[in-house]
Hints:
Residues 12-140, 153-285 form the EamA domain. The chain is mainly alpha-helical.
Amino acid sequence: MTKQKGFPKTSLLCGALGWGIAWYPYRLLEQAGIPGELTIALSYTIALLIALILFRNKVTLSAIFHPAAWILLGIHLGAGWTSTAYILGIIHGEVVRVLLLFYLAPLWTILFSRLLLQERLSQQGYLIILLSLTGASLLLWQPGGGLPLPTSYGDWMGLSSGITFALTTVLIRKGQQHSIYLKLLAMLSGAASIGFIATLITQPPFDLASLPSASWLLLLATGGLVLLLGLLVQYGMTHVPANQAIVIMLLELVAAAIAAHFLTDEFLTHRDWIGGCIIVSASLFSANVNRNQPNKHSDID
Length: 301
């Protein structure tokens, strides 16, 4: 029983560590001349095709066209934007800074949990909101005054991906009538479709035939990694309360900070570190928000 209860959290832990370094292949592919939007579309399409082959006997049309199909659509769109914005932010922005803005997610998780899961807001919930807003204000504050809003493309992508990640996390918890395989396919197809749409809107035509074999191999490996990490995180999110999942996923920030230190020349200011520590503190406090909430879920897996 203990092992069964611990496995979802272990899955999230491994997924978080994996996502902490998964950004690097995308930067390598961008440096090889492949637009980030197209890289996202191709890698997630590869992951989706592999998943369809592996789980073809676990997904039926009747399961897709369920009365609660709107939850799958929400996961499709939410996870699609989360992955696209997160990766584009990492490619074009500062890794740790983008991740810190992404991990404002507990703030949004509290709000979405209240709206969709009817989870009551405790005093700790108000503290999390206060800490999150304080940390974000320090991180986004600019000399000269004005509202502390994102000023760069990477900042906006990090912030928006955190909002949709929180929404997706809550929808995954709400959609217990759907199997983890079906929700995983919704996530992968969402990122693939939004990636292709973004490519068509923002990028000129690209000749895929001109890609060297090394780039294709890296794309295939990245697609396989995306599938594995998606499955680990999906399983964990399905069985772990939303705000606890956010806290476990914080290890992604640690892994990414270490990786960025050795793989890039990026650095944060003292104010960035202080704001980041406050944001992390808000995430740690969010672990207690659902402690007294029953963790109801089906055994669909």
